Amino acid sequence: MSLALTDVFPQGNPYLHELGVEVLEFGDDRAVMALRLKPEFMNSWQVAQGGISMTLMDVAMGLAARAGVPDAKSSATVEMSSSFLQPAGRAGDTIVARGHTYHRSTTMCFCQAELWNGDKLVAKAMGTFKLIRRLDISKKLDHE
Fold first, then answer.
1. What is the model's pTM?
2. How high is the pLDDT of residue 2?
3. Is the separation of the CB atoms in 78 and 129 below 8 Å?
4. Dist. CA 62–CA 85, nearest whole Å
5. Running along the chain, 144 residues long, what does each successive block of 10 average in pLDDT?
């Protein structure tokens, strides 16, 4: 069972919507996301572009960061590192990112993610995320 993107992104997320990202799990310091790879996501070797893999792991970690904090409305990536173990897949494959928070302070979360294509681990990531408790934060960005 998947959740609607609007269930986890109250203001929507046009980027993830256009990609076709599905939220499979969200809660208890975890998030699981899935994406069916489209031909337009392939690089010149006809395997998934690394940025697609990074996007899915980034979002899985960002959601995991706020999954255990009831008043967190969003999160912002502060730092992220990724390791690509093998090509993520080809057009038609479905990749799944599993994000998990392993440490949290009052404002920061430290997370990890794994990216899977079936039973193959294809990438890993670690990231630091700042919790955002106000959805009107974008108004501040407009005035800078």
1. 0.92
2. 87
3. yes
4. 22
5. 86 93 96 98 97 98 92 92 98 98 95 98 98 71 59
Alpha carbon 114 to its chain's center: 10
Looking at residue 143, the DSSP 8-state letter turns out to be: T
Q: Residue type for 93, please? A: D
What's residue 141's pLDDT?
59
Token pair of 40, please?
């337009």
d(CA 64, CA 100) in angstroms, rounded, equals 5
In the DSSP assignment, the letter for residue 42 is: B
Question: Which residue carries 């794994």 as its tokens?
Answer: 114
pLDDT at 139: 60
Name residue 112's beta-bridge partners.
100, 126
DSSP letters for 48-108: B-HHHHHHHHHHHHHHHHHHT-TT--EEEEEEEEEEE-S----TT-EEEEEEEEEEE-SSE
